């Protein structure tokens, strides 16, 4: 697996282009977010999504799939966001949250039968830049990491035959995102406590 070292405070344009090229060709990458490291693929590529789900043992018909967007404008193309949900998202993003929202029909067929989608806009310029350059979301699934082992090289070997590229953005913190169910925006429900504290 090729490793590109890049930090959120100093984005490398050439490395970002290289990572997006892998995504556009249906490949899987490992990259940093503002919580755990994640594996990602093009969220509009059915084949890539199915491969990533198989690797992680995720059943896309039963589990909520999450997409990483570069901002609220992109998120609103793939999830239905009412006024109250928009207010909550605007107050808390970018940040360490996954918001479960009603899925829009623009998502690919692997999402069919799923009424919801997890939306992330991480407070990490690398992950947002990937979505921005791709022009649409990156499907994302966290890689389990404990708090003592946030070094991406420690799990790179484990996924060497799966991911084509690792963006090493420094140590992760081992704490997952806070998951908030916003399918009823008047009654947000915290499904999983994580790094984020909802405002």
From TrEMBL:
PANTHER family the UniProt entry points to:
DHBP SYNTHASE RIBB-LIKE ALPHA/BETA DOMAIN-CONTAINING PROTEIN, THREONYLCARBAMOYL-AMP SYNTHASE
Q: Which Gene3D superfamilies match?
A: DHBP synthase (3.90.870.10)
Name this protein carries in UniProt: Threonylcarbamoyl-AMP synthase
**Ranges for the YrdC-like domain?**
13-196
Q: Which organism is it from?
A: Duncaniella freteri
Record NCBIfam families: L-threonylcarbamoyladenylate synthase (TIGR00057)
Q: Which Pfam families does its entry note?
A: Sua5_yciO_yrdC
Q: InterPro entries per the record?
A: DHBP_synth_RibB-like_a/b_dom (IPR017945), Sua5-like_dom (IPR006070), SUA5_domain (IPR052532)
**Molecular function per GO:** double-stranded RNA binding
């Amino acid at each position: 697996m090729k490793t590109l070292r890049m930090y959120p405070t100093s984005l490398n344009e050439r490395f970002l282009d290289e990572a997006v090229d892998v995504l556009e060709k249906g490949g899987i990458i490992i990259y940093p977010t503002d919580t755990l490291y994640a594996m990602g693929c093009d969220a509009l590529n059915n084949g890539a999504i199915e491969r990533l789900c198989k690797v992680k043992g995720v059943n896309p018909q039963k589990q909520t799939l999450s997409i990483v967007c570069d901002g609220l404008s992109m998120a609103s193309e793939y999830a239905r966001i009412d006024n109250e949900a928009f207010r909550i998202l605007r107050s808390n993003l970018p940040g360490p949250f996954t918001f479960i929202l009603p899925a829009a029909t623009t998502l690919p067929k692997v999402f069919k039968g799923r009424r919801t989608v997890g939306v992330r806009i991480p407070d990490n310029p690398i992950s947002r830049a990937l979505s921005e350059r791709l022009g649409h979301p990156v499907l994302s699934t966290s890689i389990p990491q404990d708090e003592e082992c946030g070094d991406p090289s420690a799990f790179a070997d484990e996924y060497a035959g799966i991911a084509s590229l690792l963006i090493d953005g420094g140590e992760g913190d081992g704490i997952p995102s806070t998951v908030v169910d916003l399918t009823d925006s008047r009654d947000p429900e915290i499904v999983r406590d994580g790094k984020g504290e909802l405002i």
